[in-house]
Amino acid sequence: MPKRNIISTAIKTYLLSHGAGSPYDIYKQLRDSGVNVNYISVTNTFACLKKLGLIEFDHTEPSTKGFAKTYYRVTPGKEEDPRWAAPKRFCVKRGSNG
């Protein structure tokens, strides 16, 4: 299974079981499970899922160490959307024809 599918599946599973989560939560869970993944891949997948409307903002928590953590949840009604299987395919930047 390509890494992007592991990340999007992990995000969906985590958000559905916890109600909401941050990119760092998913990153940490994957790393603790032995998956070799970098944080930017997780944040890029979150950005793609948000762009597709599969996830939405839930809340923000302040941080004592830097930036506030933003939490997301699965958008109601999008739990079984087929784009979860390979979201990056739908978020590819298209080149300009001009």
Structure characteristics:
single chain; 98 residues; alpha+beta; two-stranded antiparallel sheet; 3 helices; 40% helix; globular
Largest sheet: 2 strands, antiparallel
Label the structural class.
alpha+beta
Categorize the overall geometry.
globular
Q: What portion of residues is helical?
A: 25-40%
The count of DSSP E runs of length 2 or more, i.e. the number of strands, is 2
- N-C termini distance: 37 Å
Output the number of helix runs.
Answer: 3
Strand content: 5-15%
Order of helices and strands: HHHEE
Q: Which parts are unreliable, with pLDDT below 50 for 5 consecutive residues or more?
A: none
Rounded average pLDDT: 90
How do the strands of the widest beta sheet line up side by side?
Answer: 1-2
Radius of gyration equals 14 Å
Please sum up the structure shown.
By secondary structure, this protein is an alpha+beta fold.
Can you characterise this structure?
The protein has 98 residues and is α+β, with helices and mostly antiparallel strands. It has three helices and two strands. It has helices at 3-18, 23-32, 39-51; strands at residues 55-61, 69-74. The protein has a two-stranded antiparallel sheet. Strand 1 and strand 2 form a beta hairpin. The chain is globular. The termini are far apart.
